[in-house]
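In response to the reviewer comment on reproducibility (Comment 2.3), we provide here a single inverse folding case reported in full, input and output, so that an independent group could reproduce the run without further information from us. The structure tokens appear first.
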């Protein structure tokens, strides 16, 4: 459970650092590429937007400063252990309500992303059936495996989370 919160906190920090676009830009641009289109798919989900706004709004200014320090630490080439320790300090200092919202955000992002990739893999399977030389069979299979991993992510983090990011309070 705590690992979900830590993962979502990293996600929120990344989105804060990238200055999340408003709803007008979330509609996407056909020329931006599949990664941006996938990100826009996640941002179009109203529950994801509400949870993201709630989480970002609840972050105290001190936590935002800690997230910026974490980003600088990661950029400076710190060891994974140092980054994990800093992340654990940040996650353990968050209010319980914020931790719960982060957990819900992680679950929702995993669900929407997994379902989106399943749909993409079905489209790729159809494209492979229509033109096997153009689309290799590995593409839809890889999309399907990633979708399954995303759908199982909340369960995996729930089981292993306390071991990895346990808060000692």
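Designed residues, in position order:
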């Amino acid at each position: 459970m705590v690992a979900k919160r830590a993962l979502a906190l990293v996600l929120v920090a990344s989105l804060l650092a990238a200055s999340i676009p408003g709803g007008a830009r979330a509609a996407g641009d056909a020329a931006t590429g599949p990664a941006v289109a996938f990100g826009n798919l996640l941002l179009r989900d109203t529950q994801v937007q509400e949870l993201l706004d709630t989480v970002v709004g609840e972050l105290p200014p001190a936590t935002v400063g800690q997230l910026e320090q974490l980003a600088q630490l990661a950029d400076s080439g710190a060891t994974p252990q140092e980054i994990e320790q800093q992340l654990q300090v940040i996650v353990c200092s968050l209010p319980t309500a914020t931790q719960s919202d982060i957990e819900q955000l992680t679950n929702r992002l995993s669900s929407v992303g997994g379902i989106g990739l399943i749909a993409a893999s079905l489209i790729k399977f159809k494209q492979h059936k229509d033109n096997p030389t153009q689309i290799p069979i590995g593409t839809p299979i890889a999309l399907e495996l990633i979708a399954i991993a995303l759908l199982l992510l909340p369960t995996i983090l729930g089981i292993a989370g306390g071991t990895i990011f346990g808060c000692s309070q």
